[in-house]
Q: What sequence folds into this?
């Protein structure tokens, strides 16, 4: 794996910070990282831009406004045979390849305690 894209929402300040962290990690691993911004209205354009690049993988940030796009993102990455890591395990249950996140249910249980 050499070329990776990160899909993020530029309207979300938390996503900007996540992209900075991903960029830092990519540099440390010697990866070429492309940051692709996406908003609910232009998901198809963002994925068209993915198709124009020769990518080896995709990282998706955890923007809650993009949750309605989960099925579309999973379908588009599958169509392009692009391995993707999602922010929540729900995406994996819906057909995504993998996720890396905390167990939100367990966090909620602990918060209630």
A:
């Amino acid at each position: 794996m050499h070329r990776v894209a990160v899909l993020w929402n530029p309207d979300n300040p938390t996503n900007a910070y996540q992209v900075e962290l991903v960029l830092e990690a990519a540099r440390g691993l010697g990866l070429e990282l492309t940051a692709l911004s996406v908003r609910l209205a232009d998901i198809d354009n963002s994925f068209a831009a993915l198709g124009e690049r020769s990518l080896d993988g995709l990282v998706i940030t955890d923007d809650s406004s993009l949750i309605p796009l989960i099925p579309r993102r999973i379908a588009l990455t599958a169509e392009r045979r692009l391995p993707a890591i999602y922010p929540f395990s729900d995406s994996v249950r819906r057909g995504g390849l993998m996720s890396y996140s905390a167990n939100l249910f367990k966090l909620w249980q602990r918060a209630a305690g």
In short: The domain at 3-112 is CATH 3.40.50.2300 (Rossmann fold). The chain has a mean pLDDT of 86. Residues 62 and 87 are 5 Å apart (CA to CA).
